[in-house]
Write a structure and sequence with these properties.
Number of domains: 1
Strand order of the largest sheet: 3-2-4-1-5-6
Radius of gyration: 16 Å
CATH topology: Rossmann fold
Helix content: 25-40%
Number of helices: 5
Structural class: alpha/beta
Strand content: 15-25%
CATH class: Alpha Beta
Largest sheet: 6 strands, mixed
Order of helices and strands: EHEHEHHEHEE
Length: 193
Amino acid sequence: MNEMLRLSDPLDLYLVRHPKPAVDPALCYGVTDLPVAEDPAACAARITPLLPAQAHIVSSPLLRARLLAEALSPSVQQDARLAELDFGEWELKPFADIPASGFDVWGSTLIDFRAPGGELYADMAARVRAAFDDHRQGTTALVIVAHNGPMRTLTGSLLGLPPARWLNLEFEFGRVTHLAIGPLGPKLRGFNR
């Protein structure tokens, strides 16, 4: 599929990052299924007014995203392709114990990054994009409840940014980002409360 969406397919895309997980911030985590530190219902109450009532909601199956999505709507579709990057041997390892050389690739050539025993970043980007392409069909409003990594890859690719710039995109816990996709391509509509 062409990287740019067809001009005849307008879409309001709402990216919602899960609530803060209950994990030591000094630990590396990705695909590990973690509980949340913030009440998903309280987070959903804050987010719901920002979302269209008839939006199609799809979520990562990881608990921290799924609980928020289910608090937003009883009819949520889960998609494993929206899970966070698998950091392999680095999962739940203190950042201080990870060799600095490992992060050199992460920061300089993101798309080629793979932690030992983990997932290639390019593979994560491909699965997230495929999920988006599938779920956007037949809807004009799509809500994706997921993680920072998948949201970076999707937003970066939609905006036409080179992968090396995707790490500059940051999504806050329990917050909404809106992209309006129309005849001129995607427009980042900003970060909301």
